[in-house]
Structure formats: structure tokens, C-alpha cells
User: Fold Photosynthetic apparatus regulatory protein RegA from Ketogulonicigenium vulgare.
Amino acid sequence: MDSEELDLGRDRSLLLVDDDDAFLKRLGKAMEKRGFAVQLAEGVAAGKAEVAQNPPAYAVVDLRLEDGNGLDVVEALRESRPDCRIVVLTGYGAIATAVAAVKIGAIDYLSKPADATDVTNALLARRSDHPVPPENPMSADRVRWEHIQRVYELCDRNVSETARRLNMHRRTLQRILAKRSPK
Assistant:
């Protein structure tokens, strides 16, 4: 075990940044039960303020926050504490954002819904460990639905523009958007 891992073992400070208040509090309580000293932040500004005041050893940062992009918090963490182990968490899983998160210093990228066990495993995994496949991965229908929702949001909820970018008929897209998300 190198000295970096030894230091992180003693310092169990954890910053959770998410704009979903209920999820944030639930995950915070679960991580406290696992021995972490948890600080909560509900957005980019609050996350950066917490990093400036007391840089944590661990962090879980939601990618899409109401007041900006969670990657801004990841960059602030890397500047303040380069040894911080950061997991990026998001409801909109995409390869491009996963690559961006890892390039700026995140050690892992988890799609919501991730539970406290998934988060703990990601935070404490050794660098040489390969991630364990999820017990209940998203179905292909759910992955498709998530992708359509992400493109729809990126197009500012414009159905015609989203249909054009996804190369599908506008009415087909409207029917998909009107349905509930698949499991």
C-alpha cells in the first residue's frame, strides 16, 4: 500500500454534490453509516465553496446541476486536492461525458440510480481493479429512452430538432416521449 492510499484511509471526508435534495440526504445518511464524514452541497456554487473551505478526500458529484455543470466542481477539487477520489454521478449516461469526467480527474462514472454500495465500491476501488458489472443493468429499451431524453433536453425540448438529430420521424418521437420510461 502506498502512502497516498494510507492517507486516504484515515481521512474519510466526503463531499456529495447533487441538486436532488431527497437523493442527496438519503445518500448522505447511507455514506455516514459507512464511516464517511459527509458534507452536502446542492449545486456548483455550494460545491466549489465547500471545496475552497475544506477540500475532501472523496467526492461524489452529479454531472447536471441546476446552476451549472458538475465538471466545474471536479476541476476545483483537482486544483485544491489532487489526491481526491471523485466519482461522477448522473442520470444521463453518455460516453462523451464519461470520457470528459475521467480526463479531468474522476476515478469512476456511475449512472443513476446508483445506490450507496455502488458509490462506496467506486470510491474505494483500487486503481488496478476492474469494475464489477452491475447486478441490475439498464435494459436496452431504457438505454435508448435515456439517450432520446438526453438529446431532447440538449435540443431545449424541441421535438422537431430532436427528431432531425436522431434521424426519426417527429410523430414517432412524440409517441416515445409521451410514454413512461421503460424499466
In short: The CA atoms of residues 72 and 115 lie 24 Å apart. The chain is about 50% helix and 15% strand. The beta strands are 13-17, 37-41, 58-62, 64-65, 68-69, 85-90, 108-111. The longest helix spans residues 140-154.
